[in-house]
């Protein structure tokens, strides 16, 4: 949607009856970009990026205490 509206919004790819009264008049080229920017800002503010250990780290912790692993290395 972003590529179509922002990239092709004011070209001949969009019919004239949609392009002139809606996209050009209401500056619809900026709306999808503003929505995406708002979503990114929201996620940066409210998403907890520090989570539990990944599956690989959990598996490593399980194997770390095994005796056979120490014998191999």
Automatic annotation (TrEMBL):
This is Uncharacterized protein. It comes from Mucilaginibacter humi.
């Amino acid at each position: 949607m972003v590529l179509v509206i922002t990239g092709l919004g004011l070209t001949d790819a969009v019919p004239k009856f949609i392009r002139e009264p809606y996209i050009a008049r209401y500056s619809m080229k900026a709306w999808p970009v503003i929505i995406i920017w708002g979503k990114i800002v929201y996620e940066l503010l409210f998403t907890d990026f520090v989570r539990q250990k990944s599956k690989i780290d959990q598996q490593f912790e399980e194997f770390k205490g095994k005796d056979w692993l120490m014998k191999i290395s």
